[in-house]
Amino acid sequence: MNTSFERTKTGKEEWLTPPYIVEALGEFDLDPCAPINRPFETAKNYFTIIDDGLSKEWHGRVWLNPPYGNKTEVWLRRLSRHKNGIALTFARTETKMFFRYIWNLAVAIFFFEGRIKFYHTTGEQGDSSGAPSCLIAYDEFNATKLLEATKIIRGKYIRLK
């Protein structure tokens, strides 16, 4: 089975974050993009596609693994305005989205060494993603959490502000 993120024919948008990443970052209050079927939790509270997390009020520290594709930008814009959370997305550093909502608004970025393997809603680990990934912090507290995670997760932490 090909689980490359580069292929959109499958229409699959639910790519679950490996649990070790969320564990390394600490407890989150809200996951506004949680899958309906969750083999593991990412936050104390969550919204699924049924709830439409974009239309809801966000509270506390947010974990954001947004839908990939043309919807990603909308979710990153929302988190950049909320200013309390960490997002996981592809490290497509040259894109307009990256310049609008990451380079110019984030406090820190963590680039993974190598490609991470996302999980399926069954709880099974998939193949490596089709592109490199990064974590983005939009405030000081979460920038510190990213830096602390470098003790557990291999990669490069970069301070932006």
Shape annotation: globular
The percent range for strand residues is 15-25%
Uncertain runs: 1-11
Q: Tell me about the biggest sheet?
A: 5 strands, mixed
Count the E strands.
9
Number of domains: 1
Please state how the strands of the largest beta sheet are arranged side by side. Answer: 3-4-8-5-9
Order of helices and strands: HEEEHEHEEEEHE
**What would you report as the Rg, rounded to the nearest angstrom?**
14 Å
- Give the end-to-end Cα distance, rounded to a whole number of Å: 41 Å
Approximately how much helix is present in the residues? 10-25%
Task: Give a brief description.
The chain contains 4 helices and 9 strands; from the N terminus they run αβββαβαββββαβ.
Provide a descriptive summary of the structure in words.
With 161 residues, the chain is an alpha/beta fold. It has one domain (19-159). Helix content is 22%, strand content 22%. The protein is built from four helices and nine strands. The protein has helices at residues 19-25, 72-82, 96-103, 140-149, and strands at 30-31, 45-46, 62-64, 85-90, 108-112, 117-119, 125-128, 133-137, 155-159. The strands form three sheets. It has a five-stranded mixed beta sheet. Strand 3 (62-64), helix 2 and strand 4 (85-90) form a beta-alpha-beta unit. Helix 2 runs parallel beside helix 3. The protein is globular, with a radius of gyration of 14 Å.
